[in-house]
Fold:
Amino acid sequence: MTEKNLPAKGEVDAFLNKLASAPKPAPGPQGRLIFAMDATASRQHSWDRAVHIQAEMFQETKSLGGLLIQLAWYRGFGEFQASPWTAQSEDLARRMTAVSCRGGQTQIGRLLDHAIKETGRNKVNALVFVGDAVEENPDILCHKAGQLGLLGVPLFLFHEGTDPNAASTFAEMARLSGGACCRFDASSPQQLRELLSAVAVFAAGGRKALADYGKRRGGEVLRLTHQMGGG
Structure:
């Protein structure tokens, strides 16, 4: 990917700005985060990277009481799966390693329906989705995103690539849910690592925890939390 196609620094800044203003998770012993990925044929490279990155989501939230993560994914002809909730990085990695990407259409609507039902059983603090395409009716997806917003479940959508339909749909879904979206470059795992860790910290402890995370990490993360008024 050429430099001109990389996400502008302002896009990441804007994403974290949105993250800081999202509703604070309800208090509880552990945050609950749905980590969802598109596992259709074009996604294998990004999936493999995420397997190695996910451990930091757990690591960064230990001091906040920990984090429960549920892996959700779709692929092939109508295949959708959601794992049991886990607080163990090794368990999540094992489940992700067992998944191979297969051709098929997006099933984002099905994912959102699942999140609505899941938070009805036990409060979900945030949903992260990593994908590159939208092949469904954007109006229906936005309606479901709005339902999640009313339930206090912000969507954080990481858009790989430059597809304009996906970009506009993800942005509107994020707005309606009270979350945020950000385009990222799959060849820069550090960028995805920092974004996923930031959302995990938010899910576990809210805005104050995110500001503390920035102080602890320093560098670029600290600069961004200063912009959010959290420094």
